[in-house]
Design brief:
66% of the residues lie in helices and 10% in strands. The protein is an alpha+beta fold. The two termini are 42 Å apart.
Length: 373
């Protein structure tokens, strides 16, 4: 856990100070021994449940988990008030904050209002106040409970925004690295590759003009061979620089689909694969997502990367208009060549129900039949 998150959890735990009224009951009220022991146990359970949420539970935003956490804290708050003999809304503040922080906005508002009403009711029933005192308590305490919950909702929003900013900053850094790699690759190809190609051609012409056995002929042919090897190595370097990675392509796919207003689900469970296979799968995701954005008119896209029977499979499925009658584009033809080069297979067709499916399956170890790219 990062230091900031740890400090935030400690700060949140400090709100247990709101339990000072029932704690004060130990010193200012003559509680029977059994009642004091029960109150102490209830306070300990309350603190333990809230501490669990502060350090671990806040990461889970499943509605059932949040509802269980809030329900347990609310029941313990009622037990604290009953055992201490005090009628105070303080124990209900923490479950209200938990609901505001962990629930989605709409359920959070409903839970905050219900908890505020329940806390006020428990504080007033049996307290012996007059109607005027009850009304004053509602007008003073009610807005405070609502503000506690609203403040927790605002805090969660800020935490989410900070997480998104951190992710965006990391993505910008990755994109900057990829752009620099692409620039280096382009410069190598355009400058050094062109010069070596010209040198090779000139050397081959010179070798043909020199009679066999003439002095210097062997050196020229050796020079041509070295130039050819250097050109091949440059091409291999450029090809390596241009190979996409799964992490980069999945991140770019999420960003592009979100910008196009298309929902996206990603399943990634392939583990480690060879560079050749990772590059082909990256090209498949890029081509599939590009087609979804340009042609599908889809509302949702699913990207799945799974391993089965020694193969790694990438599926890009949308719920759009499908591809009936559409001709295969150059992108799919190029992808098919890349997939075939490592012994994989490319399949396209209608998705389940409607839409379009692009499936690429490749050996996890690469199994490249040639080294060209």
């Amino acid at each position: 856990m990062r230091l900031a998150a740890r400090l935030g959890s400690v700060f949140a735990l400090a709100w247990l100070v709101l339990l000072w009224p029932p704690v004060a009951a130990f010193f200012h009220l003559a509680l029977p021994a059994w009642r004091a022991a029960a109150l102490l146990a209830t306070l300990a359970a309350y603190a333990a449940v809230y501490a669990f949420f502060c350090f671990r539970g806040y990461r889970c935003r499943q509605p059932w988990f949040v509802a269980a956490e809030v329900a347990v804290l609310t029941l313990l708050a009622g037990a604290v008030n009953a055992l201490s003999g005090l009628k105070t809304p303080n124990p209900y503040v923490i479950p209200t904050m938990v609901a505001g922080f962990a629930f989605a906005p709409v359920p959070a508002v409903a839970a905050i209002v219900l908890l505020a009403a329940f806390g006020l009711t428990d504080s007033l029933v049996g307290a012996g106040f007059t109607a005027q005192e009850d009304l004053a308590t509602i007008l003073v305490i009610g807005p405070q409970l609502l503000l506690w919950g609203a403040g927790a909702m605002g805090l969660r929003y800020l935490v989410d925004v900070l997480a998104e900013l951190r992710a965006a900053r990391e993505q910008i850094g990755r994109l900057a690295v990829e752009q620099e790699r692409a620039r280096i690759s382009r410069d190598l190809h355009d400058q050094l590759g062109h010069s070596l190609s010209l040198l090779t051609l000139k050397g081959e012409l010179a070798a043909r003009l020199i009679p066999s056995g003439a002095p210097g002929g062997a050196e020229v042919r050796d020079m041509v061979g070295l130039a050819r090897d250097a050109l091949r190595e440059v091409r291999e370097v450029v090809s390596g620089y241009r190979k996409p990675t799964l992490a980069t392509e999945l991140s770019a796919a999420r960003t592009a689909l979100a910008a196009a207003g298309i929902g996206c689900d990603v399943e990634q469970s392939v583990g480690a694969v060879s560079r050749e296979t990772e590059a082909v799968l990256g090209w498949a995701i890029r081509e599939g997502v590009t087609n979804v954005i340009r042609h599908s008119r889809a509302a949702h896209c699913r990207i799945a990367l799974v391993r089965e029977d020694g193969l790694v499979r990438a599926d890009v499925v949308d719920d759009g208009v499908g591809a009936d009658g559409a001709a295969e584009g150059s992108g799919l033809r190029g992808l098919g060549e890349r997939v075939g080069a490592i012994g994989g297979r490319l399949e396209t067709g209608r998705g389940p129900g409607r839409g379009f499916r692009l499936t690429v399956a490749a050996p996890a170890g690469g199994a490249a039949r040639d080294g060209t790219a």
